[in-house]
Amino acid sequence: MKPLRSALALVAVLTCSTAMMAEVSLPKVLGSHMVIQRGQPVHVWGDASPGEKVSVEFHGAKGEATADAVGRWSVYLAPQPAGGPYTLTVQGTNTITLDDILVGDLWFASGQSNMEMPLAGFGPDTPVKNGEQEIAAANYPQMRLLRVDKKGATYPLEDIVSGTPWQSCTPETARQFSAVAYFFGRDLLKHEKVPIGLIDSTWGGTPAATWVSLDTIGADASLMPVYAAYNQLANGETTQARHEALDKIAIAKGQPPAKRGWHPDLVSYAPASLYNAMVAPFTPMPIKGVIWYQGETDSSMARNFLYKKLFPSLIQDWRQHWQEPDMPFLYVQLSSFTSTPQEVWPIVREAQRTTLALRNTGMAVTTDIGKADNVHPPDKETVGARLALWARATVYGEKLEYSGPLFEQANPEGATIKVWFTHAEGMQPHGTLTGFEVAGADRKFVPATGQIQGETIIVSSPSVPEPKYVRYGWQNYTDANLYNNEGLPASPFTSIVNPE
C-alpha cells in the first residue's frame, strides 16, 4: 500500500501545484480602496498560467488578455472620469474582486527622510508641527494612501516586496504616512475636488543615485562617479564590520564600545537599488505626477558636484520608465541647516534651481522654515502647501502665484550689479534685506547690500569696486529674507555657472 499512497500523494501535490499555477493574481500595488488615475487608460496586469485567458471589468468597461509564455498578462481599458467608488473584477480560472476604488489623481511621493517623516514625527525630539492635532483631523474618505516598505534589489522588481495596503485616509492610517505628502494631497483634495491617491515610497538618508535605474546610469559615462562614492562607502562597511568585532571584544572585557557616527544600510546606497524595489513596480501604473524631497545626503563633498547632472537624469529616467515624457515632477529645495563643513548645501540647492529648466518641473523653496540645529524642520504643512501651489498652477491650470522670486540674470554696472528676477511682483524683505554677496573677477565673495527696484535688485559692496558675480543665501543655514507680495521666499542662487 505504501507505493500506492506515495503515488496518490504525488498526484495530489501535482494537482495542487497546477491549481495554484492556474490562479490569476494581481500585484500588491493594485488593491481595494486604491485610486486609479483619471483621464488615462486603466491598466490592470498580473500573472496567470501560460495561455490562460483573463477578463477584466471596471465601471462598465471590459477587456480580455491571454497570459504569455511566462504567465504575464496585461489589459488596458478606456480612460475614466473622476468618480467612484467602483468595483474591479478580474476573472480567469478564479475571480478577484477589488472594491471601493476611486478614480481621481494619483501622486507618487519619494525621497529621503524629510519626505518620509510621518505626521507622528520621528519621536519627541523630532515632531511635526501641530502633529497630533493634524492626525486627529485627518479624516478624508476621498483621499487614499499606500505606504511602501523599505527594500532594495539588484534588478527591477515587478511588484513591491511589502507595504501597507491601500487604505482610506483616517487618523489611524495617516499617523505613519508622509506628512509632506499628506499636506500636499489635502490641499489638492480641497481645491481640485477630485479623489486623491498618494503613494509613500521613501527611505531616509539615501542618495539620489540609488533612486535612478541602471538604464540611465549605465548609458552616461558622466554618471560613473556614483560608483566611486558607493565603493568608498562599501569599503567603509568592511571597516564597520571590524569596528563591530572590536566592540564585542571590548564588551566582553567589561569596557564600553567606541563611540562612532551613524552608518547607513549599504543596500540603501547602492546605485539603482531603491529604484529597482521601490519605484520600478509602479511604472506600469498611470499617475498624475511625482513629488520629491531629497538632497541632504548628496550635499557631501563626495557627491554634491554630481547633483547638477544626476538630479535631472533621475527625473528624465522616471519619465522614460513611466512612458510619460512630460510627467509633472515637483520637488522641495533643501531647507536651512547648519550641518558640517564637509557638506555644502548651497551646491545642491543651486542644482535644484537650475533643474527648473526641465519642462513640467516645480520647486518649493523652504530655506525660511529650516532649523539651524535640526535637519528635519517641523513645519511640513508649509512644504506641502508650497508644492501644492506649483501643482495647482502648473498642472491644474489655476491662475495664482506659485513661486517666490527666481534669479533670471545679473548685469554688472560699474560699482554695482543689477539682478533680475521672475515671480518678483512686490519684492520685499522680512526685516532688513540680507543674504546677498558679491565678488570681483577673483570670485572671492563678501557680504553686500541690496536695493529693490521693481523686479530687480541693485547689489553692491564698497570692498568690491567692480563686482562680476552675485549670490544669495549661499550658506548651509541662511537667514536670507527676500519674498514677493504673496509671501513666497526667493530661491538661493549664484550667477556663477559652475560653482564649487
Walk me through what this model shows:
The protein has 11 helices and 23 strands. Helix 9 packs across helix 10. The protein is globular and about 80 Å long. The N and C termini lie far apart (82 Å).
Topology, element by element:
Layout: H1 2-22, E1 35-37, E2 42-47, E3 53-58, E4 61-66, E5 72-77, E6 83-91, E7 95-111, H2 113-116, H3 131-136, E8 140-148, E9 163-169, H4 171-174, H5 179-192, E10 196-202, H6 214-218, H7 225-252, H8 273-279, E11 289-293, H9 307-322, E12 329-332, H10 345-354, E13 361-364, H11 380-395, E14 406-413, E15 416-422, E16 428-429, E17 436-439, E18 446-447, E19 449-453, E20 456-460, E21 469-472, E22 482-483, E23 493-494
Parallel strand pairs: 1-7, 7-10, 7-11, 8-10, 11-12, 12-13
Antiparallel strand pairs: 2-5, 3-4, 3-6, 6-7, 8-9, 14-15, 15-20, 16-22, 17-18, 17-21, 19-20, 21-23
Quick structural overview:
With 500 residues, the chain is an alpha/beta fold. Helix content is 26%, strand content 26%.
Key words describing this protein structure:
11-stranded mixed sheet; alpha/beta; 500 residues; 4-stranded antiparallel sheet; globular; 11 helices; disordered N terminus
Number of helices: 11
The structural class is alpha/beta
The count of DSSP E runs of length 2 or more, i.e. the number of strands, is: 23
Looking at the structure, what is the overall shape? globular
User: What is the strand content?
Assistant: 25-35%
Gyration radius, to the nearest Å?
26 Å
> What helical percentage do the residues reach?
25-40%
Major β-sheet annotation: 11 strands, mixed
Distance between the termini: 82 Å
Mean pLDDT over all positions: 93
Give start-end ranges of low-pLDDT stretches.
1-20
